Amino acid sequence: MDRVAEPLKFTVLDEEDLEVVSTHLQDAVIKVADVIWQPQAKRLVLGVNRFDWEQAVADKPQNCRRRAALRFERVQSFKCRGVDPAGKDGVLNLLAVEFKETEAPSGAVTLIFSGDAAMRLEVECLEAELVDLGPVWNCTGRPVHAVEAKD
Prior knowledge:
Number of helices: 3
Radius of gyration: 16 Å
Distance between the termini: 29 Å
């Protein structure tokens, strides 16, 4: 690769921070085996292969993915829909991460995946981090969504 962007490191403490992280994680792929729920520590960690959208729209576009981790703290409960926790080889395509406040500062974080799958975290407050971990590799395609395909 000609140019490799600096690794990302974001701390999430409010809904605006989460929107930025969600943008960077659009089209990340996650193996079910890389979803680690630690109820005693009130923590959820996801190992992701995120599509580097900044590189894809740069002056010299490059399609690449980066290994990253998304960590949520102060998680009270964790539920899945359309995800088989026993199917460790299953792969999820992340579309968005959203937060809905219930009783300030607590609320629900929803990770929305293609195929109508989702993960919901009830949190005391928003406290999360997205960090690029290292490996960067070229990929053959750029994710395309139905909305883009119509244009």
